[in-house]
Each structure stands twice: as structure tokens, then as C-alpha cells.
Amino acid sequence: MDDNEDASVITPDGLQCLLDVLTARGYEVIGPRLRDQAIVYDALSGIEELPVGWTDEQDGGHYRLKRRSDEALFGYAVGPHSWKRFLHPPRIPLWQAVRDDGQMRFVPVRDEPPRYAFLGVRACELAAMDIQDRVLLQGHYADPHYQSRRKRAFLVALNCSEAGGTCFCDSMNTGPDVREGYDLVLTELLDGEDHAFLVCSGSEEGEAVLAELPQEPATEAHLVAARAVVERTRSNMGRSMPQTAIPALLMDNLEHPRWAEVADRCLSCANCTMVCPTCFCTTMEDTSDLEGATAERSQRWDSCFTSDFSYIHGGSVRTSTRSRYRQWMTHKLATWVDQFGTSGCVGCGRCVTWCPVGIDITEEVRAIHDDVSSGGRE
Amino acid sequence: MARSDPKPRLGVWKFASCDGCQLSLLDCEDELLRVAGAVDIAYFPEATRSEVRGTYDLALVEGSITTPHDAERIRDVRRRSRTLVTIGACATAGGIQALRNFADIDDFMAAVYAHPEYIETLSTSTPIADHVTVDFELRGCPISKQQLLEVVSAYLCGRQPVTPAHSVCLDCKLRGNVCVMVAHGTPCLGPMTHSGCNALCPSYNRGCYGCYGPKENPNALALSERLDQLGMGRAERLRFYRTFNAWAEPFREESERHES
Q1: Domains and CATH numbers, chain B
Q2: Is the pLDDT of residue B166 over 70?
């Protein structure tokens, strides 16, 4: 978080104005909402739809909503959804083939996604978007579906005021303070009856949107309070990733007994990869109709925890859960660095919380690290 | 290339079952006439009175094998069928009636029938694949009509049907469901259950009952441990695993482990 000279302060009513301004500019505003006893990302029209006065309790395989003692609008950590759901949707139809007079005609499916404005994007989530940008936009084959959604999105970021029980962004150096890649960044300031948001812009459009909001210039006291919010969050991380050279640690220990131990607990259900904001893998599904007149190809999220994922001529390459878990974790934390120049993990903790049996990626790294550091097992 | 006549002949066969899976074909409603246009429905006692003998290009087989007569009959169906597809939990896993496999059939007969001596039945209910070669198994209790249409459409153009073997969890996440086990503490078989229902029960905040049987590579032991932590007792867990797919191996093994 920069100590931006141009920082402003808006009230909760000002936040409603922000939603209105974004809507008026043609954005579909998506933000946190309560649904099915969790905080998910969905369309928002008013700030009263935000999870006012709620927080969450998170641990391995455990998530529960709790009431807060205040009326904070953003007093919780990340939930089961990530922005990936909107930028890299679970299913996208790609094309149809139609049979016309004995000729095959290929018809691209027109992809006209809405212009999204995301409200409350955490630092770890911005880091995840940066990683998906590297994966899906760089090189010769940029993903046009991701590109059209990503490039037109307006990001209202949020300095985290609450760390979850499975958060470890601090040890991944991705948060809890927002650094770059946003249009606007908010810090929620709540002191008794005083409820305000420090706002800074990070882009031209952000600046223009901010100019339309009722605001006051931030005082030094606001800036100090905002720094305190982030520092308190930083000191409340529920988890931490061991500070070591993780790629080498994992790649040097591909036969470590810990892989078999985690496989005994792992359900290979794919939940970790689905909730991960950086996991990007997809498969193609081809279907045809009863008459054989039309065929369709669509893309859907896939996971390295399935057998089909590594199916090649002759069978699946990774039939055991051990090989699948190891593939996922070594890719996420080690070979991802070789491939994309960054770790694939941002420390959001979703894979820990939403694993039905609570497998903890930080604990798995620590187990191998501690064992190797102590000379290894017999 | 237009499909050449004659249309493939379809037979639908019933063994020990509730008819629910066959009804999925009739439930197709909007698509039913298109099915009838694409195949010659040559044998389907549930829907037609006409019966055509001879051979079938595609046989859909519902139900499990529970009698010596049916054990013979399925061999006849196999001989008459070019491609044999089993549909539903009875045909693919033995069905709910496979609960008999865990008990003494004579006790059941004595309890149910006034004159059990007239009953000729096997001591087990077993899937079709235990008796004859099966070309494709479509899971579910009941099967999904969309998947049935997918299997028939795939058969007609000679491609693989899109019926992935991943967990119900993956479908929950595609739909954006909140995990009922993690967020509500509701016991759920989704992590070891085969995709196909589009995560129907969790979408209504219920745990998965395992209607589509085991997914590939399930880990029942780890799931049981978690269910135990969620407060589901041993006897309750045994019943959880022992329903429509009780005789499917991973479910059977895990329920038997709960007996000892």
C-alpha cells in the first residue's frame, strides 16, 4: 500500500455511490454476498447486500460464518469462490459444427461477456490474477475468452482487515496489503461509530471514477489507521509457508515417504484445484446430437486429480493418488516457477479450507522440510 | 454424410429393477420423437406393445441378476446384441436389492413369502457385467436422461460418450455450490461418488447419497474418518455406504469394514 498523496476518504454511502457509478458506466458489479452459509461472489446492486457484520471461521476442511461485534462490510477472509469463476469460467462453449447439404460448417460461438467490476479484490487475489495473466495471456496463444473478460474488468481492491485461519499471504509475499494491479483500492476504517473507507486510485479510469464520488481528502490519521489495519492483519495469519527454497526442496524429494502419507488422506476429489484462484486447467468436451446434424465443443475446468486428466494413448499416466497429489503440489510450488517465473501459490488458503479432509499445503511442505532438515528418515 | 438406413435397432431390457431407468427414456419427452427418429425401437415393453425378435444393434439393459432364469436370459440378450449398455445402479452394481448379499436369502424368503418353497431365486443380486461382457456402463439411481441421450447420441456417431468419472465435488464447484460438508458439517458422499447427477443433492444443501456409485480412485477410508469427525456414528456410516450401490466394491468394502 502506497502512502498515496491523493488518498481520499469516503463513507459507506460513498461506497454505494461507487456501485452506482460503476453500474452507470456499464459494469456488472460482482462482490461478496451471503449465500448458503458462506460468503460467495455474486452480482451486487446495493451495499446492504454485502455481508454486513459477518465474519468467517476457517480451518482445514472447516468454514463457518460468525457474527461480528461491529458492522464491518468486509470483515472476513476469502470464501469458496474466486474471481476465476468470472474471468476463466467453469464452462465456455467454443464452437459448433453444423451439417449443411453434405458440407460441414463451423460456427464459432460468440463470446460477449459482460464488463465486470469486482468489489473487494484482496491482495492475494490480485496476485492470482497476475499469475493467470502469465499463464493465459503470455506467449503465442493468449486465451481470447480470458482476455476479453480480464482486460475490460474494473478492480476495486481491498486491503485486508481480517486474516482467515488458513491465510498465509504474508509468507507468500502477496499480501495482505494491495500493491499494484487495481483501479481503486479501499481500506475499511472502523472505529466505534466512525465508519469510512480510505480510497486510492491505481489507474486513469480509477481516478475518473473516484472523482465522481463524494469524498474528503485523507488526513494523516486516516493513513496511520489504514496502515494499522494491514499490520494487524499481517500479524493474524492463520498459517505460514516455511521460508525455504521450496522448488528445490520438493524436486529433490520426489520419493519422500510423506507423499504416500498425504495420499492416504487425500480423496482425489479435485476440490483444491477447483477453489484455487490460479489453477487454470481445462478439458475439451465434444458432443453431438441424435441426428448427427450438429456437434459442439466446449471447454470446462479440469483437475490433475482425475484419471482422465493424464489419459494418453494406452492409459492414464497418473493412476495413484500419490502421483496426482505430488503432481499438483510440485507444479504449484516448484515447476510453476520454471514455467511461469513465479510460484503458483498466493497463500489464500482456499485449498486448505475447502479440502473436505483438511489437507494443508503449508503443513505438507513443512513436513518434508523438517524431515529433510533433521537428516531424513531411515 | 447422412446416416444410411436402416436405422439401428434398439432393444430395452429389464431385469431386477424398479423400471425407473427405462422411464428416464420415456421422460425424454421433447427428445423422445428424435430418439424414435434416430433408432428403430424394436423392443421396449415399457413403451410399446409390439415385440420384434431377432438381433439388436444397441441393447439398453436395466436391472440386476437375481434369479437363475435371469442369469440365462441375459446371456440370450447378449447373444442378440451388437452393443450392450447397462443403465442404472441395479445393472451396474446390483442395486438396492444387493442388500441381500449381506444377509441370508432364506431368512428374507421366510419373512416375506407364505410359501417360500415356490420361490426360485439366487442368494445374490449382481451387476450384469458379472454375467456377460458389457460394452458401456451408465451409472445412476436413476440414470440422468441427459446422460442417456448423450450415450445414445455418442453410439450413433461412433464416439466416446462424455460421462466423466470424476467426483461429485468437481460438479459442485462447476456449479458454484458451497460445500455442504465444509461449510455446514453435513455428511456427504460426494468426494467418492461418480459424477452424473450434476451435483443434485448438494445443490439443495443436502449431502450426496452416492446414487452414481464410486468415482474412479475413491478413498473411502479417509472419507469415513472425516464423517466420524463430523459426528456420524459407525452404524450410521455403514448404512450411508450401503444403499443403491451397496455392492459396488469400494462401497461394499467400506461398509463391511464397519461391520467388524
Answers
A1: 9-157 (3.40.50.700), 168-257 (no CATH)
A2: yes
